[in-house]
Amino acid sequence: MIQAESLTKHYGSKTAVDAVDFTVQPGKVTGFLGPNGAGKSTTMRMIVGLDRPNVGSVIVNGKPYHEHKAPLREVGVLLDAKAVHTGRSAYNHLRAMAATHNIPTSRVHEVINLTGLESVARKRVGGFSLGMGQRLGIAAALLGDPATLILDEPVNGLDPEGVQWVRKLTKQLAAEGRTVLLSSHLMSEMALTADHIIVLGRGRVIADASVADIIASAAQDAVRVRTPHAAALATLLAQADVTITNVEQDVLEISGLTVSEIGERAAAAQISLHELSAVSASLEDAYMKLTQNEVEYRTGDASAHTEAEAAR
Amino acid sequence: MSTETTTTQPSASRAPFVSAGSGLSFIGLLRSESIKLWSLRSTYWSFALVVVASLGIAVLMAFAMSSGMTGGVAGAGVENAQMFVLVSTAGLSLGQLIVAVLGVLSISGEYSSGMIKSTLTAVPNRLPALWAKVIVLFGFTFVVGLFSVIGAFLVAIPILGAKDLTANLFDVDVMLPLLGNALFLALIAVFAIGIGTIVRSSAGGIATVLGVILLLPTVVGLFSLLVEWVADIVPFLFTVAGSEMITPTTMESWQAFLVVLVWVAVSLGAAALLLKRRDA
């Protein structure tokens, strides 16, 4: 369980994380989603005490991270694959980490087997591929058999087999009753893995809901139309509650009208259509829509929104 | 919201997530830092170089000295002891530079590789990790230093012995200076850890430490020619105090030792303060 309360982090004049509140529940996989610079990694670093929040606090498994007697047994963390000395072997890295908590060497071998690193465990980490580095990072996170796992972009650089493995592993860990928080920039991956999603944009929580709810609330279903008379069709269909986007030269994406409505009106106006299909919203669309709104209000109408946020 | 209450659901066969008995301990940190130190090739290279430099230079000096004298010239026992100490510790000045670099790298290498994030998530209170690193490197460096000077003494014995010069290793006039040299070597490593922690960069840390050891005495020496009072601070320089503590000239041994400790304490104190305060 991770609970953040008005967590805030400034770097100079830049606010990386801006009064963020959220709770990550045990027993499910929670996804941290957001564009680059949204504050995902900074938030994760604050959870494990690497960065100190300017305002607010975050507690994990009931206490601030540094108050735990056995932090590695409480929280396993993969911040980035490069948290390892390149001159050391994977085995020795894990042994050094395990020694701090008197974790037996048998557990080191266990996590090496679990992450499929047996063949390279004695090699120096400097020669590892990104995927191998990720596996080692996950091995280190699992070392203490922790109740909470925090994984920053765990599938980054993994091959398809590895991606599937992480997906299974995180689900299994959550099913065992652990708290699992992972970030990813792969929205499709998140849709397959996460049960619950927290969307961050520019250091704020934009959405905090189940995957299904996020898709339902943020994205509308759209209709994709291919026609050589795109401009004419756009003029024909233009009305208040309809949004039309020109995806390609001949392709429009229209929301606010059904497939049949568009087909009938085009036929009546004798506009030929080469393609007419419903596009169902994906998490990716929902995410783009959410973050796009965030960006828009930030640059255009900042003061109004800040007041709204303050009132909240 | 403790872990015990939140983890009641999982399958009955599962042990509790946080098992009692094995937590963070200082002994564990010492073991961890030893594993870290001895799982890098640079450690072996550095320590091997310290030993080789000591023995090699001792052999060279012993031959040079013995060739320049005829038998029977040697004076009293105390003078012999001084000569043997000089021969046994001459190579350590190179060893000091090597150990300084090793000390900086032991922490700056963690910053440049990102390892520091692993270290500090394992030890969120941070300072115990620094103390463990200091103790481990101090200990091993002292042992290596002592091994080097005693080894150098032992190789010098037969060479100078050919000219009827001899000294007893367990003579206070021999053993104390050798111990002092090993101690100062280990303290240089500790001083370097502090600088490495403050600077957080290998290049900057090595430049700073070598500057203090090599450059500072020269620069201050030059200034003392221009400004008279500057000469008074020369004994308070790190390396000057280090040699004063072994062969006192302007101050007592213990005073020089205190000066050395102040240098180390300032470096470590600033390091601890910054390590605790800064974001990793």
What's the helical proportion of residues of chain A? 25-40%
SSE class of chain B: mainly alpha
Distance between the termini of chain B: 28 Å
Question: What proportion of the residues of chain B is helical, as a percent range?
Answer: over 70%
Average pLDDT, all residues of chain B? 89
Please characterize this protein's 3D structure.
With 312 residues, chain A is α/β, with parallel strands linked by helices. Chain A contains 12 helices and 13 strands. A 6-stranded mixed beta sheet of chain A has the order 5-6-7-3-8-9, with helices on both faces. In chain A, strands 11-12-10-13 form a 4-stranded antiparallel beta sheet, covered by helices on one side. In chain A, helix 3 packs across helix 4, helix 4 packs across helix 5 and helix 8 packs across helix 11. The longest helix of chain A has 18 residues. The C terminus of chain A is likely disordered. Chain B is globular, with a radius of gyration of 23 Å. Chain B starts with a helix and ends with a helix. Chains A and B meet through helix 2 and helix 3 of A and helix 2, helix 5 and helix 6 of B.
What features would you highlight for this structure?
heterodimer; A: 312 residues; alpha/beta; six-stranded mixed β-sheet; four-stranded antiparallel β-sheet; disordered C terminus; B: 280 residues; mainly alpha; 11 helices; 0% strand; disordered N terminus
Detail the topology: elements first, then pairings.
The complex is a heterodimer of chains A (312) and B (280).
Chain A: E1 2-11, E2 14-24, E3 29-33, H1 40-47, E4 55-60, H2 71-74, E5 75-78, H3 90-100, H4 105-114, H5 130-142, E6 148-152, H6 160-175, E7 179-183, H7 187-193, E8 196-201, E9 204-210, H8 211-218, E10 222-226, H9 230-237, E11 243-246, E12 251-255, H10 259-268, E13 275-279, H11 283-300, H12 302-311
Parallel strand pairs in A: 3-7, 3-8, 5-6, 6-7
Antiparallel strand pairs in A: 1-2, 1-4, 8-9, 10-12, 10-13, 11-12
Helix pairs in contact in A: 3-4, 4-5, 8-11
Chain B: H1 3-6, H2 26-38, H3 41-67, H4 77-89, H5 92-113, H6 115-122, H7 127-161, H8 172-199, H9 202-226, H10 238-244, H11 253-277
